Amino acid sequence: MARNEIRVGGNRLAVLSVTILLICASGLARAAADGYQDWLRAQRGGVAETERQYQAYRNEQDQQFSSHLKSQWQEFQVFQGKVRDPNPKPRLIPKAPAAASPPARVEPAPQDVPVKLAQLPKAPVSPAPTRPMPVEVAADNIDFSFYGNAIRLPYDRQWRTLRVGSINPKVLAAFWEQMSETRHQPTLHAMAQVRRDLSLDDWGHIALWRQLVKTLQPNQPTEQELLLWYFLVKAGVDVRLGYSGSQVFLFVAVRQPVYAASFIKMGKVTYYALLSPDRGKGLRTFNTYESNYPAALQPIDLSGASIAFTRTSPIEKQVNFEYQGRRINLKLAYDPQLVDYMASFPQMDFDLYFVTQGSNSAREPLLRALHQHLQGMREEEAVNFLLAFVQKAFAYQTDQDQFGYEKYFFVEEALHYPYSDCEDRSALFAWLVRELLGLKTVGLHYPGHMTTGVAVKNVPHNGASVEWQGERYVIADPTYINAGIGMAMPSYAHTKPLRVIATH
Questions:
Q1: Domains identified in the chain, total number
Q2: Which of 477, 207, 479, 180 is nearest to 337 (CA)?
Q3: What is the span of the domain harbouring residue 357?
């Protein structure tokens, strides 16, 4: 019995011990939970304090900037837009005799084999349509269309009613102060997300803000410019607002040289009048503030142009041309929304137009149609076929005659407009050669003329060519009607190009 009692007693002790342990563990758990909640509250308090300090810092920046805006202004000379090529283009282009075009051989020479056509590239995938939801549930929303994309953003209702009277430093400083007191952070965050969703280039980013301010203040150009100034500065873009007489203007800092746009120089930074309808033409002086915004601002980079952010229904177009006595009919297509966007793009150096591809809408039908005709052709014949297409399927006219000003086409625009000139055709032709034949190309800039060179394996006998970076490029002029590869336009046959432009 004693042993049993001891055993039973041992069980009671074990149960008691477990109970005590459970109570202790529960107490420890509650203590741990309470400790975690205390830690979480402390963390939240720290975040809130950090946000409060950051907002105080931003408010201090705005007050400091507003103070400068009231007094520190200076008149700057406005320089008229740079001209990329002052030499006039020929209004009428020469035609090579049809017989002069190198004929295709009936029987290929032993070393001649059909060109190995490049595999048709897969069109880049367009981003999914975006409709960002507001950052804050209670925020007011504004809806607008951006090149076919439905955009929804949170906004502050005060932005619709802001008005300014006469233009002077105190009025502009007061506008900045008013905007600083509005709720702009949710819009900045949402706009940044839209930009990421659409993969916009820097000009597209500005265009997106521009569409917002036009929606906020329709028929109020002055208030649109002021809103755009505020938003772009807050988004980190280096822009300068100023005025001349009773008009306000917004000048943008750009990393690369821009042509055909008036500009001012402030130290080492060049600001261009890219947001004026006439690019600042005729503007002689510009009053702007001398001080910089306290936070670092960045110039925009226009070294690349986005082509896959629009939402559109492609437009189809029938073209035809003659090649070796045959009439070739082709159906092509292009993106009208992208054409509209590119019409607003600042005029850049030639490189940009040579390296920018066509849109999804343009690539597939055109490349596939041409690919079918190139089957079985030798390299030289394939180049000549593409030359004939660009030379004859599109009518020639100078930009001055078509638009009244100089304009350089992206691929999409060359397919859209009824006329094109030498640099437009060169960019289109070089793109087709690279995409379909996989051959290297260069742009060749002569005074008043642009043509191309192609690195073919077999250089035609007595064919005109240039050497660049250790490779031989044979002249292939998409403007010189009936001319085949190796034939230079007579006016430039003995002229050295001013510049060779890399296209790959």
A1: 2
A2: 207
A3: 118-125+306-502
Cβ atoms of 261 and 235 closer than 8 Å:
no
The residues, ordered by sequence, that sit 6+ positions from 363 with a Cβ below 8 Å of its Cβ are 121, 123, 357, 435
CA separation for the pair 323, 388 (Å, rounded)? 6
Minimum mean pLDDT range among 34-43, 239-248, 410-419: 34-43
- Same domain for 267 and 343, yes or no, is no
A 10 A CB-CB count for 372 gives 8
Q: DSSP letter string over 199-232? A: T--HHHHHHHHHHHHHHHSTT-HHHHHHHHHHHH
Contacts of 15 (CB under 8 A, 6+ apart): none
CA angle (17, 19, 24) in 5-degree steps: 95
Contacts of 439 (CB under 8 A, 6+ apart): 379, 383, 433, 454, 455, 456
CA–CA separation, 173 vs 312, rounded Å? 41
Nearest residue to 483 via CA among 425, 419, 404, 427: 425
State the Cα–Cα distance between residues 440 and 433, nearest whole angstrom: 8
> Are 256 and 158 in the same domain?
yes
Question: Are 265 and 341 part of one and the same domain?
Answer: no
| Residue 40, domain member (yes or no) | no
The two structure tokens encoding residue 157 = 């209702």
Count how many Cα atoms sit within 13 Å of the Cα of residue 428 in the half-sphere of its side chain.
30
Q: What is the pTM assigned to this prediction?
A: 0.82
Q: What is the pLDDT of residues 126-141, one digit of tens each?
A: 444 444 443 444 459 9
Q: How far apart are CA 225 and CA 186, in angstroms?
A: 21
Looking at the fold, whether 258 and 320 belong to one and the same domain comes out as no
CA distance 404 to 418: 15
Return the bridge partners of 502, or none: 442
Neighbours of 500 (CB within 10 A): 16
What whole-number distance in Å separates Cα of residue 212 and Cα of residue 140?
14
Integer CA distances (angstroms), 317 to 72, 314, 330, 339, 353, in order: 55, 10, 8, 14, 22
CA distance 180 to 188: 13
User: In whole angstroms, what is the distance from residue 359 CA to residue 412 CA?
Assistant: 7
Express each pLDDT in 255-304 by its tens digit. Answer: 999 999 999 999 999 999 999 989 998 899 999 998 888 889 999 999 99
CB atoms within 10 A of CB 103: 11
| pLDDT tens digits along 37-93 | 665 566 666 645 555 555 565 677 777 788 878 777 899 999 999 888 888 887 888
